[in-house]
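If you are new to this repository, start here. Below is one unmodified record pulled from the training split, so you can see the exact layout before writing a loader.
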Amino acid sequence: MNLLALNLLLALAWMMLTGSFTATSLLSGLVFSYMALWVAFNRKADHGSFFWKVPKVISFIAFFIYDLIKANLVVAWDVLTPTHLMKPGVIAFPLRAHTDAQITVLANLISVTPGTLSLDVSTDRKVLYIHAMYLHDEDKLRRELQDLESRVMELID
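And here is the target side for that same chain:
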């Protein structure tokens, strides 16, 4: 059984033992079971990637939620105010991601973020075409996309 499944199973056992079936109980069960698994399996080489990836996933989720909130606020401000700040444009973003999973996750995360949309991937999978509602600073957008791409590549090997 892999450690992720064992972590979930232990968290569910925690919920049953405490008699509390809430999101808080599940979260605390996940944290306690993660710590127990870390103590039990951290030294074994074949389980090391699980303990490395969990903090990375949590960090990525926090990073993406922050970006999502920021993009929502920009779009909402533009919609609610009388002046429109949109400067739409399409850019060709050179990809460092090389697997289908990395490219798919990156393209979907870009499309889910308000103000940006993944349009197409080149046939050689080297360029991602992106439409942006606010293309005031192309270099800044490219840096933000490169940061997102780097984080996706860290999570998906």
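Two things worth knowing about this chain: The chain has five helices and three strands. The mean pLDDT is 89.
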